[in-house]
Amino acid sequence: MIHAGAPSSPVILHVPHSATTIPADVRRGILLDDAALDLELLRMTDAYTDRIAATAAADAEIAPWRFVNGFSRLVVDPERFPDAREEMLAAGMGAVYTQTSGGATLRASDALAKAGLIARYFTPYASALARLVDERINACGGATIIDVHSFPRVALPYELHSDLDRPEICIGRDDTHTPPRLVESAVDAFSRFGRVGINEPFIGTYVPLSHYGTDLRVRSIMLEVRRDLYMDETSGAPVEGALRALGEALAHLINSDTE
Question: What is the pLDDT of residue 259?
Fold first, then answer.
């Protein structure tokens, strides 16, 4: 879903993993029982990142645009490559997950079913986000994507880089699309929450494939917030004051890009 911002704002808050909605026909293809699915959603959902983004949008001096995924990443993960380039295929977690975070079978490995999910959910999502980026470029001369995520305090079994440090805040950067000034602004905005790691434990940031590596008018940075800062990871209950503070910090980052 696109939440419109100010016509003069180049900033897009991308929130891909906050939802838990799974359409009924997709649910039928998931092999977990309801209790196991609820647990997997608790582990894999970037809970409340949509609320952090909404607070930031309301507080920013110039309202950013928000692109928020309405479906769970267990439907498709729009941030994965849809083909063999995706390293998470090794963990059964390409664009269409076939394994859970703990290595159990999530759905059957069915090429036809995968193609259907890619066509129905992944491709329209990627196309809509790329169009929004183009609109911001046309309106403002450039676009800045802030990719909003969270991560658990303790690494889940599926993580390929679980040996990396897990600071309170992770900033993901790309060599081509993340200017040093944007990293500096992000560190300044979020350092009050604790240590800020760069590409640790998660690396990189989202850029539409149609722009990746070719269009330097697209800037992008990833924000990863460790979940124990703002929620009870066992129950899923939020810490309201912390959510508010994180939204305010994100607004500070947005303001730094639009000054």
Answer: 55
